[in-house]
Amino acid sequence: MRLPRGQQRPGEGSFGVVAHSAGGVVATELARLAAGRVAAVLGVAAVIPASGGSFASSLPFPNKVVRPLILRVAGTRPPESVIRKGLAAGLDEETVQRLIADLEPEPVKYFTTRTTGHDAMRAVPLKKYVVTTNDAELTVSMQRGYAGRLGASGVTEIASAHLPMITNSAEVIAAAQDLAESHPTV
Length: 186
What we know:
The protein is an alpha/beta fold and about 190 residues long.
């Protein structure tokens, strides 16, 4: 049977998403834009906005109010001292230097635009979350809240700072493999 242009059979062309940090916002919108095709989402210290929320609005008070103002005035590239303390925590000096040199600031809208894909995210069949327990960017309780918003069926804890894909890559790979094995069409 031939399907109308743009339509796919269930499971055809499906894929999984690994979302890190602000990538949780992207995953939420991707679930909407590719409705029915996103088979699984693994949030890794990912900010999952509430329905109609943005990255900034997902932060605790007063950050949800202050952060957008700071971004509009100072831009989205944090000072080196802030990068070292948060994002680069736990990394060796060579990697920190490379991170600082290569960091490209995102547009302010990336952090302030409200999402509309929360309902579509509910339809994703398999969702899991990795909590980074030594994270200076997102506390464990914040991450657990984002895991709840995601509707994660499982939470894995990794003793890592904010970039576990660098410091604990084997554990992140294992979490992604576990997700893929739980949903064989991914």
